[in-house]
Structures are given as C-alpha cells and as structure tokens.
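#struct-help
A.M.: can someone run this one for me? Single chain, 1004 residues.
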Amino acid sequence: MTTGQARLSERWNALFDAAERLARARALDEVVDVVRKTARNVTDAQGVTFVVREGDHCHYIAEDAIAPLWAGRSFSLSECVPGWVMLHGEPAIIPDVRADPRVPKDFYRGTFVESVVMMPVRAGADEAAIGAYWSEPGAPDDTTVELIRMLARYVGAAIANVALQDSFELLNRTAAAVAVERDLDTIVQMVTDAGVELTGAEFGAFFYNEVDEKGERYTLYSLSGAPREAFARFPMPRNTEVFAPTFTGTGVVRSDNIRLDPRYGKSAPYHGMPEGHLPVTSYLAVPVKSRSGEVHGGLFFGHHQEARFTADHETALLGIAGHAAIAIDNARLNQATEAEIRARRAAEAELRYLNASLEHRIAERTAEIQAQADRLAESERHFRMLVEGVSDYAIYLLDPQGNITNWNPGAERIKGYNADEILGRNFSTFYTEEDREAGIPARALEIATRTGRYESEGWRIRKDGSQLWVSAVIDAIRDKDGQLVGFAKITRDLTEKREIEEQLRQSQKMEAVGQLTGGIAHDFNNLLTIITGNIDIALRMLENPADGGRVRRAIGNAMKGAERASALTQRLLAFSRRQPLAPKPLDLDKVVAGLSDLLKRSLGELIHLEVVSSPGLWPVEADPNQLESALVNLAVNARDAIADSGTLTIETANAYLDTDYAASHAEVPPGNYVVIAVSDTGVGMPRDVLARVFEPFFTTKEVGHGTGLGLSQVYGFVKQSGGHVNVYSEEGCGTTVKIYLPRFTGASIEEDAPVETAYEPRSARGEAVLVVEDDAEVRAFSADVLRDAGYQVLEAGDGAAALRILERRNQRVDLLFTDVVMPGLSGRELSDRARQLRPNLKVLYTSGYTRNAIVHGGRLDPGVELLPKPFTSRSLMLRVRDLLDARTGKRLLLIEDDPAVRTLAIEALRSAGYLSEPAANAAEGLGRLRAAQGGYDAVVIATGPSEKDSDALLKEIRGQWADLPVLITGAASPSAESAQAVVRLVRPYTVQSIIDGLKRLGIT
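D.P.: on it. Structure tokens below:
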C-alpha cells in the first residue's frame, strides 16, 4: 500500500469514527465538538469551520485552523460564502478564492485561505454549513469533496436526531406541566411557548374561539416571541379561507410561503396582512379540539423566512394541541366545579340567614301589607266620595269585555238606570241599534286598548228610550305589569248645548244664504240688464236696415253679458262643489309653464313673475281647465294686492301631510300631496279679512271690481278634487296661497294633442242626431245649429218621445244629444234604455246642473261625454263631430325597441282608431301586461334581435294569458300560423300590414 493510499484509508476511518460519535451525540454542543475535532483529519485541510444560520446572518460557532479565522463572528447571508450555500442549497467548491465572485475579498485578505469547499448541512428546518480551507489554490480534489459531503450528511442527521430528542423532551415536559395546571391563561401560554420553541418559529399565538352569529370573531389569548402590542392595533382574524380550517377544526394549514397560497389575500379590507403586521412567510396553524369535538381555538406560528416548518413540526404540534385541549377541558371543568361550589356555599349562607331572619321578615311584611291595604281602602273611600259626589257626569267602570262594574249617581241621573238594574250589563246598551250593528262599541274598546284613550260624540239611548247627545271618554286601566284590567268611562250630556249650537248654526246658515242670495240677485240683475237692454236695442234697430252695425254691437254686448252669467254660474257650482269635473293625470310644472305667458300679460310689466319648478314632481289628478282657472284667479288677486311693482312667485313641490297636521285640519287625510304655492309681495290681509277669505261674495275690492267668488271657486274646486287649501298672510308682507292636491299613483301622464280652435266642423255624411230637451227654446236652438251644420235632426221633448223614435227600426239615429235633468225619464235613464235598443248608439249629455245622474264624487262617470250649459253653437258642433268621428278604439300594446319606429307606429295606429300603448322592450311589455292584468285586445311584438327572441316572449305571455291575440313581426315560421291567436308578419313591416294582421286576429 502506498503512502497516499494509507492516508486515504486513515481519512475514511476518521470519517466513520466521526459518524459513530455523531450518532451518540445528545446535544448540539456535542455535534459541534465532533466536527471541530475530526473535520481536519477527514478533509486534510489547514482549517475547518462550522457555521449555523441565525435569521438573516451566518454565525461561525466553531473552527479548527492553522491560524485564527472567524470564530464567534456573524455576517449577513449576502456577504459570506456560507450564506450563499444556505440560500442556494448547494455546495460551493472554490479552487481560487481570488477568482470566484462569491468570495468577499476583504474577509479573506490577511488569511492563509487560498481555496475553499463549503458544504451545506440540512437538518429539517435548521440550516448550517461545514467549511474546509487550504493554503494553496486548487487544493480540494474530488475525494475530499465527497468526504466533506458525507461528513455534512452525518452532521445533518445528528442535528436532526438531537432536535427530535429535544422535541420529545419538550413534549413530555409540556404535557406534564399542563396536566397539573388549572389556570386557563397559564395553560395556553405554556402551550404557545412550547410551540415556538419546538418549531423554531419567530413568534406564535393562541387565538381563542369566540364566534358571533356570522362566525367571524376570535380573541387573542396568548402570544410568544413578540410583544402583545404587535397585535393590539390590528383586528382579530376572521373566518377567511386561510383561517377557517383552523377555527372550524377541519385540518392543519402549513405553507412554505403563505403569501403565495391561493387562499391568501381574498378578504376585504386588507386583502392580505395589513401594513405594519409582523412579517409572516412560513405559516403553520393547528386547531385545538376537545374530546367532544368543540374547537377551543388555534395555535398559529410564523417566520419571515420560507420553508421553516416541516411535517415533523406539524406532527409535534398536533401532540401539543391534544395535550392543550385536554388541559383546557380540565381547567374549564375545574372552574365550573369551583363556581358551583361557591354558588352552593353562598346559597347555604343565604339560607342560613333567611332561616335566622324569617320570623322578623314575616312580621315586617305583614305590617307593610296591612299599611298598603289601609292606604288602598282610604284611596278607594276618597275616590268613591269623589265619584258619587259628581252628578253632572256619568262616571263608571268597565271590565275588559265592556261589562259595567261600577255606577255613580251622575250616571243614574243621565242614563236613567239605578245600580242594581245596570251592573253586569254591557255598556253597548246605551248605543243606538245602528251603532251596535256597525260595531262602534267594540271599536271604541279596541282603540282605547291600543292607544290608551278613546273620545267621541254621538247619540245614546236612556232607559226610557229617549235619545241624548253625549261626549264620551274611555280610558284603559292597566296594572303595574301593563296588563289590561278594565276601562274608566266618563260621559257628559251635551244635548242642550248641541241644540243651542244647532240654533246658532242655523242662524249663521240663514245669514250666509241671505248674503249669497243677495249677491246672486245683485250680479244677475246687472247681467240681465245688460242682456235684455242690448236685445231690446237690437230689436228696435232691426226696423231700420241701415243700423246693422249697431244691431251686431248690441247682440255682441248681450252675448258678453250671457258669457259673464255663465262664468258666474260655473263659479257658484265650483264653490258648492257641484260642477262636473273631468280629471286627468297632470304634471303641475307643465301646467304652470303653459300658463306663464298668459299670466305675464295679465300681470303687466311692473310685476315680475317667478316660477320655481321641482324636479321629480309627483303627478296629480285634476280637471286641467278648472286648475288653470284657479291659478288665474289667484294671480289676478295677487296683482290687485300689489300696489305698484312687486313679485308674484308660483312654486311647486312634493309634500307629506302627517297625522299631526291632519289632526288639526279635520277634513285633511294624511299622506303624500303635491303643493302649488302662489305668493305675492302685496299689502297682505288683516286677521279679520283672512278669516272670511273663502266666503262667497266677500270682497275688499271697490264696487264693480270683482264678484267676490274668485277664492270661493278655488276653494270649491280644490275640495272637490280631494285636496286642501290654506292661506298665509301678514299685513305689509304679502300673501301665500297653498293648494295641496293628492299625489296620483295611477297610469302615466299622456300629452294631449293640440286642438285647432278655429275649426267649425260640419256633417259630411248627413248623420242623424236625436235632440232630447224639455226646454223648447234650448231644443230649438240646438236643432237649428245642427241642421245648419248639415245633420239630420230629430227632436223630442222628453224621454218617452225619444224612445218612440228610437223604436222605429228604419229610423237612422247616429247620436243621442240629451239633457240630463228632465221630467219623467232622466237623461241617464233614457241613455240606458236607448242602448238596450241600439247598443252602438253614441250619447252626448248636456246639463247646467247634473245632480248625481252622471257625476259621482264630483267626477264624470267613466265613458260619459258632457257638454255643460250654457254652450255655444261652435262648441256643440265640435263635440258632436268629435264624438261621431271617434271609433270604439281597441287597446293595443306595441313592443318595439326602435324609438323612432315606435313613435311613428303609435301615432299611425292611433290615427287608425286604435288605443296604442308603447313598450321599449320585452321586460317593460311584460310589466305593462301584469299591471293591466292582461287587459289589452292584442299585443304587437316588434322587438329586434337584441331582445329575448319573440318565441320566448310569446311563451311567457301564453303562460299567463292563453287566449290573448298576439301579432309578431320577424322571420316567418312554418308553425306560426298553426298557433292559436297568433299572426306573424315579415320585418320590415308597415302600419297597414299591422292593421291587416290585426283584422286577421279579429281586432277591428
């Protein structure tokens, strides 16, 4: 054997000897000692070092060299060769330290080192390195490198073995410690500290489960390796994807880099760790579960470096978690036992005290009860004296069912019953039969129970059957627990007081009627003077043909007087709320805007008109003509109240009148209203004038300037429309009139088509009109006007004569023009019987006062056409022509997504006599169908490809309205014509093609 071979054999033997000694090592110091004593002999190097990683640094913990190197010093991982090895996990074989860029030249300057082999040592999560140094370049050969690699492997195994033994010892110590510990805080702290030590984590924490109803709240219980302040400013962890497995006990979460975990960073608001949080890269979390399956919480460990936790750590922590769960269960059981013992001892002490003081307490309680009984008896005696001493009021008590339990002398005097006759009977005995049938007594008790009090006035019955008018108050009586025990009822006889008030009201009514009659007589006498005087002049002038101009002027003046008389009549009807209204949905902003030019001309140049609109204004339902008339009246009054120059402001807004406001204005129901306020900067009104502002014929203007009916007309119109009007005024500051109209929630507002006012239509087809009027002069006037317009006119003086004409089979009658109020058959009764004979007969009513024949609630009945008296020849011709030209329009729903095509089609269909409603898409169309409950004669589907296809829409329609006719435009389908009540047209379509398709569906 050569010398070289012998030396190689010695080196291998030295390696095997080191391996045996490393296998017996029981501590890291022993491992380091073996490396220091044997490594040079194994490697034939001039120096060896043992380096371990501590955080981001390399620490040279041992060396054996021919000259001192770096023993006991630490360097950053990035500035030393061992750091490069640990970061890259591979050996560094450097034949020449001066030529390798991995070598920090400054560290090696002044040392003997010319070549290096640095070998990584892997021991679980612990990192270390063994370095060998030679004094000449190129020294390490392949055999030496392999010997160093094997030595590093043995050292890694020895370190892992030492760590495993340490783990077992730590586990045993921790298990023994927590087994005897009963304090919950100490247990979890011991467990957390053991976990940090066992895993080498930088910090660890135990979060205790305190789950709210959302399962998202946990409490930090203990912390190890970091100050508690490090978590104090951050919220507790929530039930996110990362934390959920731990807190629900479904498994362990271990990650080499939690920031790269797909479950990480998905929850608001931080989407990861908040700024300033302890740095966590390696992550290990283990649930702590009791034997019953309850999850007490979780152990969480972190390290800023990657891959610091291994499967061995996971297994060891599961063992610690199991011991911790048992200890927590025992601690809780101990706490519960101690609490029960304390409670039992306290109860025994209290029982001993109660037994010792029972006799004394019984005596005290007996005296207290007796004192309360004496006070109650005294209170009842005083109450009985008070109640029995009152003779002007009936005061008595009821049980919860309304049966009488107490009766005072006042009740006996007012009602006529003595106590023996009435006690035990129900208080409804005093109500009229009508009130009992209407359930008023039961409703009174229900309101008193719910609100605490019920107040009312009404008729009641005495024992002798006579009636009295009373004011009654019912108060609910409850015990200290809030339970109803009965009612107290106080009744006062107001019969005499009511008779006096009724006499006063009758006197005031007669005075008002007298004032009204005088005002009407005064104004009508003036108007009749104008009419009769001018007619007389015209009659005298007719004898002289040369005075034709004066005749026309006189007749014109007479017509003006008649028009003023008509306007006066309409104002009287408005005040009395008897005028027939034709309400429709209105946008008040548009009404005011449409009136602004007229108002500006009426106000003059010195008065500035300011209109304040309100975006999002709710619609109302009112008669547009009467509303405009009311606004003009208010504007004229405001103009007259402004001395020289000033401002008139008309403002609209949405308003809510609450129950408090309604309580102080009895005629106003609470709810949503639209208010229109007319304000001026005029002289204002004193209180006495303000109190009479709505009285008919009351005016502060000079004689001849106004009738005193303007505000009365406004008041009557608003009340008839279901609204409310109020006036606010202050002398020297101006006046504001506020009109409140109820919010309209029905169908949307449709714009009226413009009306050509100069057109006087005539008959083009010689239609026949039956004129029925009991006033011969009015009948002759109507017949002459219609004959002049080219109509065939039939006349009847009453309903019976009209029916005889209608019964003639060969007699053509296209329209019935009838007065409403006639002797015998009324106009409405005539219309009903006429349509039995001729179902398609069109009817136009006329009347100066309709009573309730065709008007209910102040509104025309649906489908009724009315021409109010007095009327002109032109207005009669217009209404007759319009009614004859109107078809019985069928109601269509047109679903078309192109706005221009939709508008054109709607107008064309309307001109063809169809009542068409538009929808921009399938969803809107279905919404309209549901709102109308399918109340259309047909549906036209003309949607483009961007909408759900027509067949799908047809299927939805058929699912709810199986027989509703449907016309579809688009590509023709072979099966289309076989479908029931369906017609298809090819797109593009024309309006005529739609009309033809509707005819095929039977819609004409």
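A.M.: thanks! The longest helix spans residues 311-389.
D.P.: also worth noting: Residues 574-578, 752-759, 973-978 have pLDDT under 50 and may be disordered.
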